[in-house]
Specification:
single chain, Rossmann fold, eight-stranded mixed beta sheet, 11 helices
Length: about 325
C-alpha cells in the first residue's frame, strides 16, 4: 500500500513538472506595433504614464453640448462595445468619450501595467483633465461590468468632477469575496497566457462566450468587434499583469457615493446577476434600478433601444444643471 502511495505521488509530481515545462514550450506573442492603430474614424491616442491609450470622442455638429458622458467597457471589451450608443447619444446633444483601458481594445499591451481599479481610475482622470476643454461642465460616468467598478472608483476619487454614475451589469463583489488564483505560481499564469493566445482568441470561442453573455447568437460583425483586439500581438502576455495587480470593488465601498446612480441590468445575466442590485440599493443612497427583460450581460448590444431609453431618461434629470 505504501509503495502504491509513493508511486502515485511521484506520478503526480512528474505530471506537474511536465505541465510546467510544457506551458513554456507553447509560444506566446510579444507586444508589437498595432497594424491598424486608427481603427475608427474617431480614433485618437494619448501618452499617459508611458502608456499609449486609445480613445474616441463623439461630438454633435452644432457645437452645443447638453452633457458629457464617459463610457468604459468591461473585461474583454473595447470602445466598440458601445457602437450602438454613440450616434443616438450624440443626436441628443451629448459629448461622448469612450476609452480603451490599457491592455484592451487598441490601447497599449504590456506585462508591467498596474490594473488595480485605483490605477485605472487615476489614469482616466488624467486623460480627462488633459483633453477636456470645458472643465466647468461635470461628467456622467458610465461603466459596463468591470468598467462599472472603474467608474465607481473614479467617483470616489474625484466627487467634485462628476454628476452621476451609470452602471450596466456592474461587476462588484459582495461581502468582500474574490476568486482565488495562485499568482505566485508562474506556470499557472503562463497557462492563462497560453489559453488566451491559442484558445480564447478563436472565433468559435468568442462566438460561444458572446452567445452565453448575449443570450442569443451574436452576428458575425459582433464577434469580430470582440475578436480583433484579442488578436493583437502581446494581448495574452499582458494577462500576467492583470492576474497579479487587478483588484475588486466591494459594494460596501459604494457607501461613499452620494450622487445619483442608474443601474441597468439584464434580467437573464448570470455573469453578474441582477440580484446584486439588492445589495446596491442598501449601499447607495440615490439609486434607480432598471431591469431589461430577456437581456443578458450586454443589454446595450442586444437591447440598445431599451438601454438608451433608460440612459436618456436618467440624463434628462440634469438638463438644468
Amino acid at each position: 500500500m505504501r509503495k502504491c502511495i509513493i508511486v502515485l505521488f511521484l506520478a503526480i509530481v512528474l505530471l506537474l513538472c511536465v505541465s510546467c515545462i510544457t506551458a513554456y514550450l507553447i509560444p506566446v506573442s510579444k507586444p508589437q506595433t498595432i497594424d491598424n492603430p486608427f481603427r475608427y474614424e474617431q480614433s485618437n491616442y494619448i501618452e499617459l504614464d508611458e502608456m499609449s491609450i486609445h480613445y474616441r470622442i463623439f461630438r454633435s455638429n452644432n457645437g452645443q453640448v447638453r452633457g458629457k458622458l464617459l463610457l468604459i467597457h468591461g473585461f474583454g471589451g473595447s470602445t466598440a462595445s458601445f457602437e450602438n450608443l454613440f450616434e443616438p447619444l450624440v443626436s441628443e446633444g451629448y459629448l461622448v468619450l469612450a476609452v480603451d483601458l490599457p491592455e484592451f481594445g487598441y490601447s497599449m499591451r504590456s506585462d508591467a501595467i498596474d490594473h488595480s481599479q485605483e490605477a485605472r481610475a487615476t489614469l482616466l482622470w488624467k486623460l480627462i483633465e488633459t483633453i477636456d476643454q470645458d472643465k466647468t461642465m461635470k461628467w456622467h460616468l458610465m461603466g459596463h461590468s468591470i468598467g462599472g467598478a472603474v467608474v465607481a472608483t473614479m467617483a470616489l476619487q474625484r466627487p467634485e468632477r462628476y454628476l452621476s454614475l451609470i452602471l450596466v451589469d456592474p461587476a462588484f463583489t459582495v461581502d468582500n469575496r474574490s476568486v482565488f488564483f495562485p499568482v505566485w505560481f508562474a506556470p499557472a499564469v503562463r497557462w492563462v497566457q497560453v489559453y488566451i493566445e491559442h484558445i480564447l482568441s478563436r472565433e468559435s470561442k468568442v462566438a460561444k462566450l458572446l452567445e452565453d453573455g448575449f443570450k442569443r447568437k451574436p452576428t458575425e460583425e459582433e464577434v469580430l468587434r470582440y475578436l480583433e483586439p484579442l488578436k493583437i500581438p502581446g494581448t495574452a502576455r499582458g494577462a500576467k499583469a492583470i492576474v497579479k495587480t487587478s483588484t475588486d470593488v466591494s459594494i460596501r465601498q459604494l457607501q461613499g457615493i452620494y450622487k445619483p446612480v442608474l443601474a441597468i441590468w439584464g434580467a437573464l445575466d448570470d455573469w453578474t446577476p441582477a440580484s446584486i442590485s439588492e445589495a446596491l440599493v442598501q449601499s447607495v443612497s440615490q439609486v434607480d434600478i432598471v431591469v431589461i427583460e430577456e437581456a443578458g450581460h450586454f443589454p446595450f448590444e442586444t437591447h440598445p433601444e431599451q438601454t438608451l431609453d433608460a440612459i436618456l431618461h436618467h440624463l434628462a434629470i440634469f438638463d438644468d444643471e
